[in-house]
């Protein structure tokens, strides 16, 4: 009788461990990096036409 109880307990433990290994687990969300923008011109980013009307921008002077 004791052998039967031990065998049943061992079988139950193996089945429990095997079924727990098959349970799905939540995976962390993938981290996506943003793709660089290709083919876009920076319209409106240059200083051309940014001076006040009637006043020319000052000269470009390099300082050493």
Number of strands: 0
Number of helices: 1
Radius of gyration: 37 Å
Order of helices and strands: H
Mean pLDDT: 78
Q: Which consecutive residue ranges, at least 5 long each, have pLDDT under 50?
A: none
Strand content: under 5%
Give the structural class: mainly alpha
Task: Describe the largest sheet.
Answer: none
- The percent range for helix content is 25-40%
Structure described in brief:
This protein is mostly helical and 64 residues long. The chain is built from one helix and no strands.
Keywords:
64 residues; mainly alpha; 31% helix; rod-shaped
List the helices and strands and how they pair.
Blueprint: H1 2-21
Describe the structure.
This protein has one helix spanning 2-21. The protein is mainly α and 64 residues long. The longest helix has 20 residues, at 2-21. The radius of gyration is 37 Å and the shape is rod-shaped.
């Amino acid at each position: 009788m004791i052998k039967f109880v031990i065998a049943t307990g061992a079988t139950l433990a193996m089945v429990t461990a095997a079924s727990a290994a098959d349970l799905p687990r939540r995976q962390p969300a993938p981290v996506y990096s943003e793709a660089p923008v290709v083919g876009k011109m920076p319209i409106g980013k240059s200083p051309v036409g940014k001076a006040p009307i009637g006043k020319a921008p000052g000269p470009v002077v390099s300082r050493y």
